[in-house]
């Protein structure tokens, strides 16, 4: 590496450097969701990966079963209602709701 390139690389903080590939971006998104349940906007703010890419990675991780939605609530970044996702098994719900319980409807009327 030339001295000019070394000086330029040293001047840019590591948090502001662009990632070198899509695999790195996907891993950054996975790690960000692992810290705590977050919205996609929060991950965009933390990782500097654009949101369309985050949506794509979340879709790929959902197909693989690596990420789950924990809850829906107001996004701290946008203020809109959004899903909070996590890749950490500690924060994941025990299981998906496979059926709907209608309380009181299964009992016979007297």
* Largest sheet: number of strands, sense, barrel closure: 2 strands, antiparallel
CATH topology (level 3) name of the domain at 22-91: Arc Repressor Mutant, subunit A
Question: How do the SSEs run, as a string of H and E?
Answer: HHHHEE
Mean pLDDT: 82
CATH superfamily of the domain at 22-91: Winged helix-like DNA-binding domain superfamily/Winged helix DNA-binding domain
- Number of H/I helices: 4
Question: Which structural category fits the helices and strands?
Answer: alpha+beta
- Mass-distribution shape: elongated
Classified by CATH, the class of the domain at 22-91 is Mainly Alpha
Distance between the termini: 85 Å
Strand arrangement, largest sheet? 1-2
Helix content: 40-55%
Radius of gyration: 20 Å
**Unreliable runs, pLDDT <50, ≥5 residues?**
none
Architecture per CATH nomenclature, i.e. the level-2 architecture of the domain at 22-91:
Orthogonal Bundle
Total strand segments? 2
Region (Disordered): 1-25
């Amino acid at each position: 590496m030339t001295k000019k390139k070394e000086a330029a690389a040293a001047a840019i903080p590591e948090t502001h450097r662009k990632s070198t590939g899509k695999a790195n971006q996907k891993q950054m998104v996975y790690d960000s969701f692992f810290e705590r349940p977050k919205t996609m906007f929060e991950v965009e703010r933390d990782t500097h990966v654009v949101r369309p890419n985050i949506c794509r990675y979340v879709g790929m991780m959902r197909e693989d079963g690596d990420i789950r939605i924990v809850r829906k609530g107001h996004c701290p970044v946008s203020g809109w209602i959004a899903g909070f996702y996590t890749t950490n098994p500690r924060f994941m719900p025990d299981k998906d709701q496979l059926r709907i319980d209608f309380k009181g409807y299964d009992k016979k009327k007297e």
